[in-house]
Amino acid sequence: MNTEIIEYNTALQPYYEQLNIDWLQEFFAVEEADKWMLENPKEAILNNGGHILFAKRGHEIVGTVALKFSAPGVYELAKMTVAKTARGFGLGRVLCEAAIQKAKQLGATKVILYTNSKLQDAIHIYGKLGFEQIPVDKLEFVRIDTMMQLTLNTYHEQA
């Protein structure tokens, strides 16, 4: 089944929130900063020039990713998750690639992300897309121990 990437609208907020809460509860814990970001996507992401994308298969929303404005030319890849029932089909990579393309459209020169070293599958995807590990510059969430960045002129769609 084909995957369609669609932009956020207010009707999709419950999917954004629930997909991320499910993922956080599976791997870590839901922190107060997570709750606020998931319950208030307009204030947390969209009003500051960010975007939220969704992966849709048929009539089902199966994944999401946020692009959070960080600084001029820099966007943060955040809150990327795929529903447990839809994992193993490459949707994480599809979402990541869609977010990178969106960042390029927005004029970004760099995409950063914060993650945890135990998420080796995700780190592997990021690495294949050209992200490189760099020293962590902030600890917004307890679970963060890894930071990566992608300089967009080094990104290759067929990586």
Describe the protein in words.
With 159 residues, this protein is an alpha+beta fold. It has one domain: Gcn5-related N-acetyltransferase (GNAT) (Aminopeptidase). 32% of the residues lie in helices and 30% in strands. The protein is built from five helices and seven strands, in the order βαααβββαβαββ. The chain has a seven-stranded mixed sheet with strand order 1-2-3-4-5-7-6. Helix 1 (13-27) runs antiparallel to helix 2 (32-39). The chain is globular. It starts with a strand and ends in an 8-residue tail after the last strand. 30% of the residues are buried. The model has no long low-confidence stretch (mean pLDDT 93).
Summarize the entry for a quick read.
The protein is 32% helix and 30% strand. It contains 5 helices and 7 strands, in the order βαααβββαβαββ. The mean pLDDT is 93.
Number of helices: 5
What's the CATH H-level homologous superfamily? Answer: Gcn5-related N-acetyltransferase (GNAT)
* Total number of distinct structural domains: 1
Provide the spatial order of strands within the biggest beta sheet. Answer: 1-2-3-4-5-7-6
Largest sheet: 7 strands, mixed
* CATH-derived architecture: 3-Layer(aba) Sandwich
CATH class: Alpha Beta
Approximately what portion of the residues adopt beta-strand conformation? 25-35%
